[in-house]
Amino acid sequence: MGDVPVKRTSRDIRTANRYEVLRQIIAHSPTSRQELAAATGLSLATVATLVGELLDLGMLTEVGFEDSAGGRPRGLVAVNASGGALIGVDIAETYVRVELFDLALDMLARADEDMRPGENRPEQVVAHVAAAVGSVVTQAGVEGARVLGVGVSVPGQVDRDRGVSEYAPNWDWHDVPLLDLLSEHIAYPLYLDNPLRACAVAELWFGAARGRGDAVVVNLGTGVGAGLALGGGLHRGVSNSAGEWGHTTLVLDGRLCHCGNHGCVETYVGAPGIMLNLRELSPSSPLLHPEDQTATIDALARGVAAQDPVALTVVRDTARYLGAGISNLVNVFNPEVVVLSSWVAATLGDPLLNEVREAVARHALKRPFAATEIVLSPIPTDPVCLGAATFALEGALQSVSQRGASVSRPRARAGPKG
Amino acid sequence: MGDVPVKRTSRDIRTANRYEVLRQIIAHSPTSRQELAAATGLSLATVATLVGELLDLGMLTEVGFEDSAGGRPRGLVAVNASGGALIGVDIAETYVRVELFDLALDMLARADEDMRPGENRPEQVVAHVAAAVGSVVTQAGVEGARVLGVGVSVPGQVDRDRGVSEYAPNWDWHDVPLLDLLSEHIAYPLYLDNPLRACAVAELWFGAARGRGDAVVVNLGTGVGAGLALGGGLHRGVSNSAGEWGHTTLVLDGRLCHCGNHGCVETYVGAPGIMLNLRELSPSSPLLHPEDQTATIDALARGVAAQDPVALTVVRDTARYLGAGISNLVNVFNPEVVVLSSWVAATLGDPLLNEVREAVARHALKRPFAATEIVLSPIPTDPVCLGAATFALEGALQSVSQRGASVSRPRARAGPKG
To answer: Taking a C-beta distance cutoff of 8 angstroms, is the pair A210, B3 a contact?
Structure first.
């Protein structure tokens, strides 16, 4: 055991550099190879090689020249937005959302499917996903052949390589072969991961973690967790389950969690935990919609805007737990930025952020706190869909290094099946 | 801000590969370039280049040939143990320990200096370090000119680049320019870091983290923390303060910590926290030596060996806190191995380890728990001294990439000053 080497291959570096160059180009099209070299710290020769590969793949396009004072005119490149399409699937506890993007990761179409409470058998979820994927392809009017891949985010622990949902605690799924089930309906290359990592990769490519050394993306939804963007890449852990901050003990012997532990962060700051905070404070509050997380969080947000004292207290209580839990992340990771992401963070917005900042200041060590910015996700659309689509983009880019200069194409037919 | 690039340079890779090759050679001398390539996953050409550099530096030596079935005889290399000396300094709350190593990191000499309670002004600590460094050089009889560097570990948060102890909570040090003070007495190149990272780098080079992808080294002493060996290197964070797990909240609104927060892990499992666990259980226990942490932990270890019920209960209580806290690390990092290091772990040994394993099994998520081994540090000597000496070795290796093939030498004179 002790001597298994940790391989650092030139291919890993090459893949990371390819991501970095494409990230820059997506953020700043059109741009020159010289600007890319300056922005990434890579040599001009390396940038030229990587740009050449991306041009060959049809992911970039040449868009003319700019003058350079006294020197030769510099060639400009831009993302070839219409060079392909990417689909991101956000399977959440209460809905399925699917979005289709062009190669600049601009969203072209969206489809939402609600799931009723209890509607959580794998076949039911797969049917919703297949219907929504069919819908976005039709809406966007893209040829199916241009879809480079579909990234799928499912809550809980996943085995990416086998495409299996190992454990989804809210549904009690165990070892569901989700990609096999989906591939009976969807003919595009499929990539599986979970919302923690989808949100983290979305921030890394397009949001508040872009260009930051170490970032923690705190995902606040029904479940909660922390996507870890360390050293410019995702930290996945040895079995791809890193980031389960929602299941760290904050209150020893506290509330019982569905994971079996007591006092987990998630039991205080996940949407059901926030509902419990509200119920404990004011059992008959009209803000409380017992069977509807979304309606309750929406009502809290409106209550805070209207200075409702119960809503203000619930947000403050929640921020106290959240602040202590985020301080733990700040002290352990010493990140440059902590990003609050997902629908609960988006709905409660700045009032939550302000309370959280004050709470973190009380709990965290002064120096790592001073080195950390705490922000709301700047991504205006569903970060899980965007991140899932980014996994499909990374998959397409990675298939280059594995198979030479040819992006993987749909296996069988041009559109979604059945 | 958002566009500062994350540079991945070929020099970083080269340095990491140089470490990896030297680690293998130290572990398995003599060895061939072919074996090194197989063990590290690097190409034979890369290994040959790195071995050549280390030979030029005098860190390796050629030691003959081995037959390879039918092929050309293979040249064997080994660490040139006498090619230089490295010194590791462990400044702890109650003592200073200094060890001198040869280049195979075998210890040649040790000096200990006790510090009385209250004896913690920087000048006092510096005087102890200088005396002990002088002592080990004299004992070992090495020429001062062969000392390649001195690694210094000091508790708390440090600025390595400036050589400053930014904050040492147990002594209330703030921004003490420790390396400047030491350099008035010690003429060798000096490298500053803290015990969390010293223990982690010792495990990475010589212990349970060697060859592991992701390891967490839990440091149990007066203070506690977690050294993070991720992807084969140390995770330091944006301001070099990552790993402050001792100051994460485990019991919201629990015991007051000297950092200002309540319920920190350290207040339950650091040596003073364990003493408090004992005092709360049995205020007049003969195991308790109120002013002496070491004596108390020693007494607990003897009590456990003798099946003393109070000692058994204290260790079980402590393991319960420790198990919940380590589960947080398992769930967040999903590491391959968790190593229990430093003097409290070494003293309480297997009885503590067994209780901790059971407690982690109760608190952690099943899948990351199943992927994680929990072990005591296999390093038989002081891991902080070994790790500090390793920082000096890394410093000497790094200076190669910065200055060409010449190891940094003492600045002024051959021995310690004063």
So the answer is: yes
Q: Which domains does chain A have, with CATH numbers?
A: 10-79 (1.10.10.10), 83-198+382-403 (3.30.420.40), 209-376 (3.30.420.40)
Closest by CA to A86, choosing from A54, A133, A49, is A133
C-alpha span between B263 and B260 (Å, rounded): 10
Around Cβ A289, how many Cβ atoms within 10 Å? 14
What are phi and psi for residue A96, nearest 5 degrees?
Answer: -120, 130
Q: Which residues pair with B90 in a beta bridge?
A: B97, B153
Determine the 3-state secondary structure of B248 from DSSP.
Answer: coil
Angle at A82 between CA A76 and CA A86, to 5 degrees: 115
Query: Cα–Cα distances in Å, from A357 out to A313, A363, B396?
Result: 16, 10, 42
Confidence of residue A27 (pLDDT cuts 50, 70, 90): confident
Q: Do A368 and B17 touch (CB under 8 A)?
A: no
Residues of A in contact with B7 (CB under 8 A): 40-41
Q: Tens of pLDDT along A332-341? A: 999 999 999 9
Rg of chain A over Cα atoms, rounded to whole angstroms, equals 22
**Under 8 Å between Cβ of A267 and A274:** no
Alpha helices, DSSP H only, in A286-412?
A: 293-305, 309-333, 343-363, 366-370, 383-403
pLDDT in tens, B243-301: 999 999 999 999 999 999 999 999 999 999 999 999 999 999 999 999 899 999 999 99
Q: For residues A228 and B158, what is the distance between their CA atoms, to the nearest angstrom?
A: 24
Residue among B277, B346, B306, B223 nearest B288 (CA): B277
CA pair distance B344, B351, nearest whole angstrom: 12
Comparing CB atoms, the residue among A13, A214, A244 nearest residue B365 is A244
Sheet holding B373-376, edge to edge: B233-234, B224-230, B214-220, B337-341, B373-376
Cross-chain CB nearest to B244 (options A9, A211, A365): A365
- How many residue contacts between A and B have a Cβ separation below 8 Å? 223
Instruction: State phi, psi for B396 to the nearest 5 degrees.
Output: -65, -40
Q: Beta A107-114 vs A95-102: how paired, if at all?
A: antiparallel
pLDDT in tens, A46-78: 999 999 999 998 899 999 888 777 777 889 999
SS3 B315: helix
Alpha-carbon dihedral angle through residues A218, A223, A225, A229, given to the nearest 10 degrees: -70
- For residue A112, the distance in angstroms to the closest alpha carbon of chain B comes to 31
Q: What distance in Å separates the CA atoms of residue B296 and residue B225, rounded to the nearest whole number?
A: 21
- Residues A418, A393: Cα–Cα separation, whole Å: 25
Strands B147-153 and B190-193: parallel
Cα A56 to the chain's mean position, in Å? 28
| Residue in A5, A242, A328 nearest the CB of B211 | A5
Contact of B417 with B127, CB cutoff 8 Å = no
- Peptide bond preceding A368: is omega within 30 degrees of 0, i.e. cis? no
Give B401: exposed, middle or buried? Use CB within 10 Å, 0-12, 13-18, 19+.
Answer: middle
What is the reported pTM?
0.89
Query: What single-letter amino acid sits at A271?
Result: A
Q: Which residues of chain A lie closer than 8 angstroms to B157, CB-CB? A: 365, 367
Contact A268, A249 (CB under 8 A): no
